[in-house]
Design goal:
With 116 residues, this protein is mainly α. 66% of the residues lie in helices and 0% in strands.
């Protein structure tokens, strides 16, 4: 099957799962999406928009965790994760992922880690 023929099906499946609040499944679908078609700013914004329940890990952090089990984050995912771990006071996680070559690190992220 051609790549572009699969795109609408993958996007539709993602949206269905997300609307059913089955967040683990759409995160896995995004991580494994062909050519990373679901690994976009829109997807990050969707996970970011879900309210954090008291005492729970932000859904966005869970999403990035799923992506990290599958491989490396792209540049905007890396930047968003950097912001998130600074806000959560978990810089040690960022340092571990960087050491494992799971992040694309730019100067902006290094500055964030120094000031955060």
């Amino acid at each position: 099957m051609m790549f572009w023929a699969v795109v609408p099906e993958v996007v539709q499946r993602f949206q269905e799962l997300f609307s059913q609040t089955k967040y683990k499944e759409p995160a896995e679908l995004a991580a494994e999406s062909p050519q990373g078609i679901l690994r976009t700013l829109d997807t990050v914004a969707k996970f970011q928009s879900v309210p954090v329940q008291a005492g729970q890990m932000p859904l966005l952090l869970q999403y990035f965790g799923t992506l990290l089990t599958k491989g490396k984050l792209n540049s905007f995912e890396s930047l968003e994760l950097s912001r998130l771990v600074v806000n959560q006071n978990k810089k040690n996680l960022w340092e571990n992922w960087l050491a494992e070559d799971k992040l694309e690190c730019r100067e902006e992220q290094r500055d964030l880690m120094k000031t955060g």
